[in-house]
Amino acid sequence: QPVDAFDLVIFGGTGDLAVRKLLPALFHRYVDGQIPDGTRIIGVAREALDDEGYRQQITAGLNGAAAQNPEKFKAFLKLVTYRPLDARKDEGWDEFAKLIGQQPDHVRVFYLSTSPDLFVDICRRLGHYGLNKGESRVVMEKPIGRDLASANRINDDVGSVFNESQTFRIDHYLGKETVQNLLALRFGNALFEPLWNAEHIDHVQITVAETLGVGRRGSYYDNAGALRDMVQNHMLQLLCMVAMEPPSSLSPDAVRDEKLKVLHSLKPINDENAAQLTVRGQYRAGATEGQSVKGYIDELNEDSKNKIEKSQTETFVALKAEIGNWRWAGVPFYLRTGKRLAERVSEIVVAFKPVPHSIFHPSAGPLAQNRLVLRLQPDEGVKLWLTIKHPGPGGLRLRHVPLDMSFAEAFGVQQSDAYERLILDVVRGNPTLFMRRDEVEAAWRWAGPILAAWEDSGESPRPYTAGTWGPSASVALIERDGRTWNEDN
Ligand code: BG6
Protein backbone atom coordinates (compact mmCIF):
# COMPACT_ATOMS: atom_id res chain seq x y z
CA GLN A 1 0.00 0.00 0.00
CA PRO A 2 1.21 3.59 -0.59
CA VAL A 3 3.31 5.29 2.05
CA ASP A 4 3.21 8.91 3.21
CA ALA A 5 6.14 11.23 2.55
CA PHE A 6 9.06 10.15 4.75
CA ASP A 7 12.66 11.04 5.56
CA LEU A 8 15.44 8.64 4.65
CA VAL A 9 18.95 9.45 5.80
CA ILE A 10 21.67 7.32 4.23
CA PHE A 11 24.86 7.29 6.30
CA GLY A 12 27.61 6.21 3.95
CA GLY A 13 25.74 8.09 1.23
CA THR A 14 28.73 8.23 -1.14
CA GLY A 15 29.56 4.54 -0.69
CA ASP A 16 29.19 1.72 -3.14
CA LEU A 17 25.96 0.34 -1.70
CA ALA A 18 24.21 3.71 -1.59
CA VAL A 19 25.21 4.69 -5.10
CA ARG A 20 24.92 1.29 -6.78
CA LYS A 21 21.86 -0.12 -4.99
CA LEU A 22 19.92 2.12 -2.61
CA LEU A 23 19.51 5.23 -4.74
CA PRO A 24 18.67 3.33 -7.94
CA ALA A 25 16.11 1.32 -5.94
CA LEU A 26 14.58 4.54 -4.64
CA PHE A 27 14.50 6.00 -8.12
CA HIS A 28 12.66 2.97 -9.49
CA ARG A 29 10.09 3.19 -6.72
CA TYR A 30 9.74 6.88 -7.46
CA VAL A 31 9.11 6.20 -11.14
CA ASP A 32 6.43 3.70 -10.09
CA GLY A 33 4.75 6.39 -8.03
CA GLN A 34 5.55 4.74 -4.69
CA ILE A 35 7.58 7.58 -3.21
CA PRO A 36 5.48 10.67 -2.63
CA ASP A 37 6.78 14.16 -3.31
CA GLY A 38 7.74 15.77 -0.03
CA THR A 39 9.92 12.77 0.82
CA ARG A 40 13.45 13.76 1.77
CA ILE A 41 16.42 11.58 0.88
CA ILE A 42 19.50 12.86 2.64
CA GLY A 43 22.92 11.45 1.80
CA VAL A 44 25.45 11.76 4.62
CA ALA A 45 29.19 11.11 4.46
CA ARG A 46 32.44 12.74 5.43
CA GLU A 47 33.25 14.15 1.99
CA ALA A 48 32.80 17.91 1.67
CA LEU A 49 30.19 17.96 -1.07
CA ASP A 50 27.22 20.19 -1.69
CA ASP A 51 23.81 19.00 -2.86
CA GLU A 52 24.74 19.49 -6.50
CA GLY A 53 28.03 17.61 -6.17
CA TYR A 54 26.22 14.71 -4.53
CA ARG A 55 23.52 14.63 -7.18
CA GLN A 56 26.23 14.41 -9.84
CA GLN A 57 27.86 11.48 -8.06
CA ILE A 58 24.67 9.52 -7.81
CA THR A 59 23.70 10.23 -11.40
CA ALA A 60 26.80 8.32 -12.47
CA GLY A 61 25.71 5.38 -10.32
CA LEU A 62 22.29 5.17 -11.88
CA ASN A 63 23.77 3.64 -15.01
CA GLY A 64 21.71 5.35 -17.64
CA ALA A 65 18.34 4.87 -15.88
CA ALA A 66 18.34 8.64 -15.62
CA ALA A 67 18.75 9.04 -19.37
CA GLN A 68 15.76 6.82 -20.06
CA ASN A 69 13.47 8.94 -17.98
CA PRO A 70 15.04 12.42 -17.72
CA GLU A 71 11.91 14.23 -16.54
CA LYS A 72 11.28 11.86 -13.66
CA PHE A 73 14.95 11.82 -12.83
CA LYS A 74 15.06 15.58 -12.50
CA ALA A 75 12.08 15.47 -10.18
CA PHE A 76 13.64 12.62 -8.17
CA LEU A 77 16.89 14.54 -7.70
CA LYS A 78 14.91 17.35 -6.09
CA LEU A 79 14.15 14.99 -3.22
CA VAL A 80 17.86 14.31 -2.68
CA THR A 81 20.18 16.48 -0.59
CA TYR A 82 23.53 15.96 1.09
CA ARG A 83 25.05 16.74 4.49
CA PRO A 84 28.75 16.30 5.24
CA LEU A 85 29.06 14.76 8.71
CA ASP A 86 31.64 12.78 10.61
CA ALA A 87 30.24 10.31 13.13
CA ARG A 88 33.24 11.02 15.37
CA LYS A 89 33.14 14.83 15.27
CA ASP A 90 30.54 17.27 16.62
CA GLU A 91 30.65 19.59 13.65
CA GLY A 92 27.43 19.85 11.66
CA TRP A 93 25.28 17.64 13.90
CA ASP A 94 23.27 20.53 15.40
CA GLU A 95 22.21 21.67 11.94
CA PHE A 96 21.51 18.11 10.88
CA ALA A 97 19.22 17.59 13.89
CA LYS A 98 17.40 20.83 13.07
CA LEU A 99 16.94 19.73 9.48
CA ILE A 100 15.38 16.44 10.56
CA GLY A 101 13.26 18.24 13.15
CA GLN A 102 11.63 20.32 10.41
CA GLN A 103 9.36 17.39 9.53
CA PRO A 104 8.22 16.01 12.89
CA ASP A 105 5.41 13.96 11.31
CA HIS A 106 7.55 12.07 8.84
CA VAL A 107 8.57 8.49 9.43
CA ARG A 108 12.36 8.73 9.73
CA VAL A 109 14.63 6.00 8.50
CA PHE A 110 18.31 6.15 9.38
CA TYR A 111 20.09 3.76 7.05
CA LEU A 112 23.54 2.75 8.32
CA SER A 113 25.36 1.90 5.13
CA THR A 114 28.76 2.40 6.74
CA SER A 115 31.40 0.23 8.30
CA PRO A 116 29.92 -1.41 11.43
CA ASP A 117 32.50 0.37 13.65
CA LEU A 118 30.55 3.57 13.05
CA PHE A 119 27.07 2.24 13.90
CA VAL A 120 27.41 2.97 17.58
CA ASP A 121 28.80 6.50 17.20
CA ILE A 122 26.06 7.40 14.75
CA CYS A 123 23.29 6.00 16.93
CA ARG A 124 24.56 7.70 20.07
CA ARG A 125 24.45 11.01 18.28
CA LEU A 126 20.97 10.35 16.93
CA GLY A 127 19.91 9.51 20.49
CA HIS A 128 21.58 12.61 21.89
CA TYR A 129 19.38 14.77 19.65
CA GLY A 130 16.26 12.74 20.40
CA LEU A 131 16.04 11.61 16.78
CA ASN A 132 15.25 8.07 17.93
CA LYS A 133 11.86 9.18 19.25
CA GLY A 134 8.52 8.63 17.54
CA GLU A 135 8.33 6.92 14.19
CA SER A 136 12.09 6.54 13.82
CA ARG A 137 13.78 3.44 12.50
CA VAL A 138 17.34 2.37 12.04
CA VAL A 139 18.56 0.02 9.31
CA MET A 140 21.78 -1.91 9.81
CA GLU A 141 23.57 -3.46 6.87
CA LYS A 142 25.20 -6.83 7.23
CA PRO A 143 27.59 -8.12 8.35
CA ILE A 144 26.76 -6.89 11.83
CA GLY A 145 30.15 -7.04 13.52
CA ARG A 146 32.86 -9.50 12.63
CA ASP A 147 32.10 -12.14 15.26
CA LEU A 148 29.62 -12.88 18.02
CA ALA A 149 31.24 -10.58 20.56
CA SER A 150 31.36 -7.55 18.28
CA ALA A 151 27.82 -8.22 17.01
CA ASN A 152 26.61 -8.30 20.61
CA ARG A 153 28.36 -5.05 21.38
CA ILE A 154 26.79 -3.36 18.36
CA ASN A 155 23.35 -4.77 19.08
CA ASP A 156 23.59 -3.68 22.74
CA ASP A 157 24.79 -0.20 21.92
CA VAL A 158 22.37 0.40 19.04
CA GLY A 159 19.71 -1.20 21.25
CA SER A 160 20.32 1.38 23.96
CA VAL A 161 19.12 4.05 21.49
CA PHE A 162 16.62 2.20 19.27
CA ASN A 163 14.43 -0.60 20.58
CA GLU A 164 14.13 -3.92 18.72
CA SER A 165 10.92 -2.94 16.94
CA GLN A 166 12.70 0.12 15.51
CA THR A 167 15.71 -1.89 14.37
CA PHE A 168 15.79 -3.39 10.88
CA ARG A 169 18.76 -5.67 10.16
CA ILE A 170 18.74 -5.94 6.44
CA ASP A 171 19.71 -9.00 4.46
CA HIS A 172 18.78 -8.07 0.94
CA TYR A 173 18.62 -11.72 -0.15
CA LEU A 174 15.37 -11.98 1.78
CA GLY A 175 13.90 -9.32 -0.51
CA LYS A 176 14.70 -11.27 -3.66
CA GLU A 177 11.64 -12.45 -5.52
CA THR A 178 12.72 -16.08 -5.77
CA VAL A 179 13.47 -16.31 -2.08
CA GLN A 180 9.97 -15.24 -1.27
CA ASN A 181 8.72 -17.52 -3.97
CA LEU A 182 10.26 -20.35 -2.02
CA LEU A 183 7.65 -19.70 0.66
CA ALA A 184 4.89 -19.85 -1.95
CA LEU A 185 6.28 -23.01 -3.52
CA ARG A 186 6.85 -24.86 -0.28
CA PHE A 187 3.73 -23.83 1.57
CA GLY A 188 1.29 -23.12 -1.27
CA ASN A 189 1.57 -26.51 -2.98
CA ALA A 190 0.54 -29.85 -1.61
CA LEU A 191 3.14 -31.45 -3.84
CA PHE A 192 6.41 -30.63 -2.14
CA GLU A 193 5.94 -30.64 1.60
CA PRO A 194 5.37 -34.41 1.98
CA LEU A 195 8.70 -34.99 0.19
CA TRP A 196 10.58 -32.20 1.93
CA ASN A 197 12.64 -34.27 4.35
CA ALA A 198 15.54 -36.67 4.76
CA GLU A 199 13.50 -39.61 3.56
CA HIS A 200 13.13 -38.15 0.06
CA ILE A 201 15.77 -35.46 -0.30
CA ASP A 202 19.32 -36.56 -1.04
CA HIS A 203 21.00 -33.19 -0.58
CA VAL A 204 20.62 -29.44 -1.10
CA GLN A 205 23.04 -27.11 -2.88
CA ILE A 206 23.13 -23.37 -2.56
CA THR A 207 25.39 -21.48 -4.94
CA VAL A 208 25.90 -17.72 -5.05
CA ALA A 209 28.54 -17.14 -7.72
CA GLU A 210 29.67 -13.72 -8.85
CA THR A 211 31.89 -12.64 -11.72
CA LEU A 212 32.64 -9.30 -10.05
CA GLY A 213 35.80 -8.81 -8.04
CA VAL A 214 36.08 -6.69 -4.91
CA GLY A 215 36.12 -3.46 -6.91
CA ARG A 216 36.06 -0.32 -4.78
CA ARG A 217 35.23 -2.24 -1.63
CA GLY A 218 38.68 -3.65 -0.95
CA SER A 219 39.16 -2.04 2.44
CA TYR A 220 35.87 -3.44 3.71
CA TYR A 221 36.22 -6.79 2.00
CA ASP A 222 39.74 -7.57 3.09
CA ASN A 223 38.58 -7.33 6.71
CA ALA A 224 35.54 -9.46 6.03
CA GLY A 225 36.04 -12.22 3.44
CA ALA A 226 33.42 -14.43 1.86
CA LEU A 227 32.33 -16.21 5.03
CA ARG A 228 31.44 -12.98 6.82
CA ASP A 229 30.26 -11.19 3.67
CA MET A 230 28.00 -13.87 2.21
CA VAL A 231 27.76 -17.08 4.23
CA GLN A 232 27.00 -15.80 7.75
CA ASN A 233 24.03 -13.87 6.39
CA HIS A 234 22.73 -14.38 2.83
CA MET A 235 23.53 -18.05 2.46
CA LEU A 236 22.39 -19.04 5.93
CA GLN A 237 19.15 -17.16 5.37
CA LEU A 238 18.59 -19.10 2.15
CA LEU A 239 19.37 -22.32 3.97
CA CYS A 240 16.84 -21.39 6.66
CA MET A 241 14.12 -20.71 4.11
CA VAL A 242 14.69 -24.15 2.58
CA ALA A 243 15.00 -26.01 5.86
CA MET A 244 12.61 -24.35 8.32
CA GLU A 245 9.45 -26.04 9.59
CA PRO A 246 6.21 -24.58 8.24
CA PRO A 247 5.52 -21.42 10.27
CA SER A 248 1.97 -21.11 11.57
CA SER A 249 1.52 -17.88 9.60
CA LEU A 250 3.57 -15.30 7.75
CA SER A 251 3.69 -13.01 10.76
CA PRO A 252 7.21 -11.66 11.32
CA ASP A 253 7.90 -13.65 14.47
CA ALA A 254 6.32 -16.90 13.29
CA VAL A 255 8.75 -16.98 10.35
CA ARG A 256 11.73 -15.80 12.34
CA ASP A 257 11.14 -18.29 15.14
CA GLU A 258 11.33 -21.15 12.63
CA LYS A 259 14.47 -19.80 10.99
CA LEU A 260 16.11 -19.46 14.38
CA LYS A 261 15.47 -23.13 15.17
CA VAL A 262 17.31 -24.11 11.99
CA LEU A 263 20.29 -21.95 12.92
CA HIS A 264 20.37 -23.54 16.34
CA SER A 265 20.30 -27.00 14.78
CA LEU A 266 23.32 -26.51 12.50
CA LYS A 267 26.04 -28.96 13.42
CA PRO A 268 29.24 -27.25 14.52
CA ILE A 269 32.18 -26.90 12.16
CA ASN A 270 35.35 -26.29 14.14
CA ASP A 271 39.03 -27.21 14.47
CA GLU A 272 38.17 -30.89 14.42
CA ASN A 273 36.33 -31.06 11.11
CA ALA A 274 36.85 -27.77 9.24
CA ALA A 275 39.56 -29.27 7.02
CA GLN A 276 37.11 -31.93 5.77
CA LEU A 277 34.02 -29.75 5.58
CA THR A 278 35.25 -26.43 4.21
CA VAL A 279 37.34 -25.09 1.34
CA ARG A 280 38.41 -21.49 1.01
CA GLY A 281 40.06 -19.83 -1.92
CA GLN A 282 41.42 -16.55 -3.23
CA TYR A 283 41.42 -15.52 -6.87
CA ARG A 284 44.47 -14.97 -8.98
CA ALA A 285 44.59 -13.11 -12.31
CA GLY A 286 42.45 -14.62 -15.04
CA ALA A 287 39.51 -13.65 -17.23
CA THR A 288 35.82 -13.19 -16.54
CA GLU A 289 33.21 -12.44 -19.17
CA GLY A 290 35.89 -12.29 -21.85
CA GLN A 291 38.00 -9.66 -20.09
CA SER A 292 41.29 -10.25 -18.36
CA VAL A 293 41.17 -9.31 -14.72
CA LYS A 294 43.70 -8.85 -11.95
CA GLY A 295 44.24 -11.11 -9.00
CA TYR A 296 42.77 -10.24 -5.61
CA ILE A 297 45.90 -8.64 -4.14
CA ASP A 298 46.50 -6.45 -7.20
CA GLU A 299 42.87 -5.42 -7.19
CA LEU A 300 43.11 -4.46 -3.52
CA ASN A 301 46.23 -2.43 -4.16
CA GLU A 302 44.58 -0.52 -6.97
CA ASP A 303 42.23 1.01 -4.46
CA SER A 304 44.48 1.62 -1.50
CA LYS A 305 47.44 3.78 -0.63
CA ASN A 306 49.16 1.22 1.59
CA LYS A 307 50.32 -1.53 -0.69
CA ILE A 308 49.94 -5.02 0.67
CA GLU A 309 51.71 -8.16 -0.49
CA LYS A 310 49.72 -10.90 1.10
CA SER A 311 46.25 -11.39 2.46
CA GLN A 312 44.67 -14.40 4.14
CA THR A 313 41.18 -13.23 3.19
CA GLU A 314 39.05 -15.76 1.35
CA THR A 315 37.15 -14.67 -1.77
CA PHE A 316 35.61 -18.14 -2.14
CA VAL A 317 34.07 -20.60 0.31
CA ALA A 318 32.55 -24.01 -0.21
CA LEU A 319 31.30 -26.00 2.72
CA LYS A 320 29.19 -28.91 3.73
CA ALA A 321 26.68 -28.08 6.45
CA GLU A 322 24.36 -30.43 8.28
CA ILE A 323 21.24 -29.76 10.25
CA GLY A 324 20.88 -31.97 13.28
CA ASN A 325 17.13 -32.49 13.52
CA TRP A 326 14.59 -35.14 12.52
CA ARG A 327 13.62 -33.61 9.21
CA TRP A 328 17.16 -33.23 7.90
CA ALA A 329 19.22 -35.93 9.60
CA GLY A 330 21.99 -37.00 7.24
CA VAL A 331 21.08 -34.57 4.40
CA PRO A 332 24.09 -32.44 3.46
CA PHE A 333 23.61 -28.80 2.52
CA TYR A 334 26.49 -27.86 0.20
CA LEU A 335 27.09 -24.11 0.09
CA ARG A 336 29.44 -22.30 -2.23
CA THR A 337 30.03 -18.65 -2.99
CA GLY A 338 32.82 -16.65 -4.49
CA LYS A 339 33.95 -13.64 -6.41
CA ARG A 340 35.44 -13.76 -9.91
CA LEU A 341 33.88 -17.10 -10.70
CA ALA A 342 32.99 -18.43 -14.13
CA GLU A 343 29.43 -17.13 -14.20
CA ARG A 344 27.05 -14.96 -12.25
CA VAL A 345 24.49 -17.38 -10.95
CA SER A 346 22.62 -17.82 -7.69
CA GLU A 347 20.51 -20.87 -7.21
CA ILE A 348 19.14 -23.35 -4.75
CA VAL A 349 19.07 -26.97 -5.87
CA VAL A 350 17.02 -29.55 -4.03
CA ALA A 351 18.14 -33.00 -5.22
CA PHE A 352 15.75 -35.87 -4.53
CA LYS A 353 16.65 -39.47 -3.81
CA PRO A 354 16.51 -41.98 -6.67
CA VAL A 355 13.55 -44.31 -7.15
CA PRO A 356 13.97 -47.42 -5.01
CA HIS A 357 14.04 -49.89 -7.88
CA SER A 358 14.54 -49.51 -11.63
CA ILE A 359 12.17 -51.37 -13.95
CA PHE A 360 14.06 -50.20 -17.05
CA HIS A 361 16.53 -52.12 -19.18
CA PRO A 362 20.05 -50.71 -18.85
CA SER A 363 19.93 -49.77 -22.56
CA ALA A 364 17.19 -47.21 -21.71
CA GLY A 365 19.93 -45.09 -20.17
CA PRO A 366 20.56 -44.05 -16.59
CA LEU A 367 17.88 -42.84 -14.23
CA ALA A 368 18.81 -39.36 -13.11
CA GLN A 369 17.87 -37.59 -9.89
CA ASN A 370 14.83 -35.33 -9.76
CA ARG A 371 16.13 -31.86 -9.02
CA LEU A 372 14.18 -28.76 -8.16
CA VAL A 373 16.23 -25.72 -9.14
CA LEU A 374 15.24 -22.30 -7.88
CA ARG A 375 17.14 -19.72 -9.85
CA LEU A 376 17.55 -16.45 -7.98
CA GLN A 377 19.54 -14.64 -10.64
CA PRO A 378 19.96 -13.98 -13.44
CA ASP A 379 16.79 -15.19 -15.24
CA GLU A 380 14.73 -15.89 -12.13
CA GLY A 381 12.77 -19.06 -12.44
CA VAL A 382 11.99 -22.55 -11.28
CA LYS A 383 12.98 -25.80 -12.99
CA LEU A 384 11.92 -29.26 -12.02
CA TRP A 385 14.01 -31.96 -13.68
CA LEU A 386 12.02 -35.08 -14.53
CA THR A 387 12.71 -38.38 -16.24
CA ILE A 388 10.56 -39.01 -19.31
CA LYS A 389 10.55 -41.28 -22.33
CA HIS A 390 12.25 -39.98 -25.43
CA PRO A 391 9.41 -39.68 -27.98
CA GLY A 392 9.29 -42.02 -30.97
CA PRO A 393 9.11 -45.68 -31.75
CA GLY A 394 12.78 -46.55 -31.21
CA GLY A 395 12.33 -48.39 -27.91
CA LEU A 396 12.14 -46.98 -24.44
CA ARG A 397 14.90 -44.46 -23.94
CA LEU A 398 14.94 -42.29 -20.84
CA ARG A 399 15.59 -38.58 -20.94
CA HIS A 400 16.07 -36.01 -18.25
CA VAL A 401 14.19 -32.79 -19.05
CA PRO A 402 13.08 -29.76 -17.06
CA LEU A 403 9.64 -28.34 -16.45
CA ASP A 404 10.87 -24.84 -16.84
CA MET A 405 9.24 -21.65 -15.59
CA SER A 406 10.95 -18.36 -16.25
CA PHE A 407 9.47 -15.40 -14.38
CA ALA A 408 10.25 -13.02 -17.23
CA GLU A 409 8.46 -15.21 -19.77
CA ALA A 410 5.56 -16.19 -17.55
CA PHE A 411 4.79 -12.75 -16.20
CA GLY A 412 6.47 -10.46 -18.70
CA VAL A 413 7.76 -8.22 -15.97
CA GLN A 414 11.23 -7.14 -15.09
CA GLN A 415 12.04 -8.26 -11.55
CA SER A 416 12.50 -5.39 -9.17
CA ASP A 417 15.60 -5.19 -7.05
CA ALA A 418 15.36 -6.56 -3.51
CA TYR A 419 16.18 -3.17 -2.01
CA GLU A 420 13.12 -1.62 -3.65
CA ARG A 421 10.87 -3.76 -1.59
CA LEU A 422 12.89 -3.77 1.60
CA ILE A 423 13.35 0.00 1.91
CA LEU A 424 9.59 0.49 1.68
CA ASP A 425 9.03 -2.33 4.18
CA VAL A 426 11.12 -0.32 6.64
CA VAL A 427 9.05 2.79 5.98
CA ARG A 428 5.91 0.74 6.57
CA GLY A 429 7.40 -0.81 9.70
CA ASN A 430 7.13 -4.41 8.48
CA PRO A 431 10.04 -6.50 9.83
CA THR A 432 9.14 -9.92 8.33
CA LEU A 433 12.02 -9.89 5.86
CA PHE A 434 14.61 -8.57 8.31
CA MET A 435 16.84 -10.46 10.73
CA ARG A 436 16.00 -10.47 14.37
CA ARG A 437 18.83 -10.04 16.83
CA ASP A 438 18.78 -13.67 17.94
CA GLU A 439 19.11 -14.87 14.35
CA VAL A 440 22.22 -12.77 13.81
CA GLU A 441 23.69 -14.13 17.03
CA ALA A 442 22.91 -17.73 16.18
CA ALA A 443 24.49 -17.27 12.74
CA TRP A 444 27.68 -15.90 14.31
CA ARG A 445 27.73 -18.68 16.87
CA TRP A 446 27.96 -21.14 13.98
CA ALA A 447 30.28 -19.10 11.72
CA GLY A 448 32.74 -18.06 14.45
CA PRO A 449 34.33 -21.49 15.01
CA ILE A 450 34.85 -21.90 11.24
CA LEU A 451 36.79 -18.64 11.12
CA ALA A 452 38.73 -19.67 14.22
CA ALA A 453 39.55 -23.07 12.71
CA TRP A 454 40.92 -21.43 9.57
CA GLU A 455 43.04 -19.11 11.62
CA ASP A 456 44.30 -21.91 13.85
CA SER A 457 45.22 -24.03 10.85
CA GLY A 458 47.76 -21.42 9.75
CA GLU A 459 46.94 -22.33 6.14
CA SER A 460 46.36 -19.83 3.36
CA PRO A 461 43.29 -19.83 1.14
CA ARG A 462 43.80 -21.97 -1.98
CA PRO A 463 44.50 -19.98 -5.13
CA TYR A 464 42.06 -20.19 -8.04
CA THR A 465 42.16 -18.55 -11.43
CA ALA A 466 39.60 -15.80 -11.94
CA GLY A 467 36.88 -17.04 -14.28
CA THR A 468 36.85 -20.62 -13.00
CA TRP A 469 34.57 -22.32 -10.46
CA GLY A 470 37.04 -21.90 -7.60
CA PRO A 471 39.68 -24.22 -6.20
CA SER A 472 39.45 -27.82 -7.38
CA ALA A 473 39.16 -28.86 -3.72
CA SER A 474 35.59 -27.54 -3.78
CA VAL A 475 34.74 -30.03 -6.51
CA ALA A 476 36.38 -32.74 -4.45
CA LEU A 477 34.33 -31.67 -1.40
CA ILE A 478 31.10 -32.77 -3.06
CA GLU A 479 32.47 -35.51 -5.32
CA ARG A 480 33.88 -37.32 -2.33
CA ASP A 481 30.26 -37.93 -1.38
CA GLY A 482 29.40 -39.23 -4.87
CA ARG A 483 27.59 -36.02 -5.85
CA THR A 484 28.29 -33.15 -8.23
CA TRP A 485 27.63 -29.41 -8.30
CA ASN A 486 24.65 -28.60 -10.47
CA GLU A 487 25.61 -27.71 -14.01
CA ASP A 488 22.26 -27.80 -15.78
CA ASN A 489 21.94 -24.14 -16.38
C1 BG6 B 1 26.44 -8.07 -0.68
C2 BG6 B 1 27.89 -8.42 -0.52
O1 BG6 B 1 25.76 -8.22 0.53
O2 BG6 B 1 25.88 -8.91 -1.66
C3 BG6 B 1 28.61 -8.27 -1.82
O3 BG6 B 1 28.47 -7.55 0.46
C4 BG6 B 1 27.94 -9.04 -2.92
O4 BG6 B 1 29.97 -8.66 -1.72
C5 BG6 B 1 26.45 -8.75 -2.94
O5 BG6 B 1 28.50 -8.67 -4.15
C6 BG6 B 1 25.71 -9.67 -3.89
O6 BG6 B 1 24.41 -9.23 -4.03
P1 BG6 B 1 23.57 -9.53 -5.35
O7 BG6 B 1 22.21 -9.03 -5.03
O8 BG6 B 1 24.25 -8.81 -6.46
O9 BG6 B 1 23.62 -11.02 -5.52
From TrEMBL:
Enzyme Commission number: 1.1.1.49
NCBIfam families, alphabetically?
A: zwf
Q: What is the protein's known function? A: Catalyzes the oxidation of glucose 6-phosphate to 6-phosphogluconolactone.
Q: Where is the Glucose-6-phosphate dehydrogenase C-terminal domain?
A: 183-486
> Which positions bind NADP(+)?
46, 142
- Report the protein name in the record: Glucose-6-phosphate 1-dehydrogenase
Q: Which Gene3D superfamilies match?
A: Dihydrodipicolinate Reductase, domain 2, NAD(P)-binding Rossmann-like Domain
Q: Which InterPro entries match?
A: G6P_DH, G6P_DH_AS, G6P_DH_C, G6P_DH_NAD-bd, NAD(P)-bd_dom_sf
Keyword field contains Oxidoreductase: yes
Q: Which GO terms describe its cellular component?
A: cytosol
Q: Which UniProt keywords apply?
A: Carbohydrate metabolism, Glucose metabolism, NADP, Oxidoreductase
Query: Catalytic residues?
Result: 234
Any one Gene Ontology MF annotation carried by this entry is:
glucose-6-phosphate dehydrogenase activity
Report the residue ranges that make up the Glucose-6-phosphate dehydrogenase NAD-binding domain in this protein.
9-181
From the UniProt record, give the pathway where this protein acts: Carbohydrate degradation; pentose phosphate pathway; D-ribulose 5-phosphate from D-glucose 6-phosphate (oxidative stage): step 1/3
What family does the Swiss-Prot or TrEMBL record give for this protein? Belongs to the glucose-6-phosphate dehydrogenase family.
**Which residues make up the binding site for substrate?**
172, 176, 210, 229, 339
Q: Which GO terms describe its biological process?
A: glucose metabolic process; pentose-phosphate shunt, oxidative branch
Origin superkingdom: Bacteria
Catalytic activity entry? D-glucose 6-phosphate + NADP(+) = 6-phospho-D-glucono-1,5-lactone + NADPH + H(+)
Carries keyword Magnesium?
no
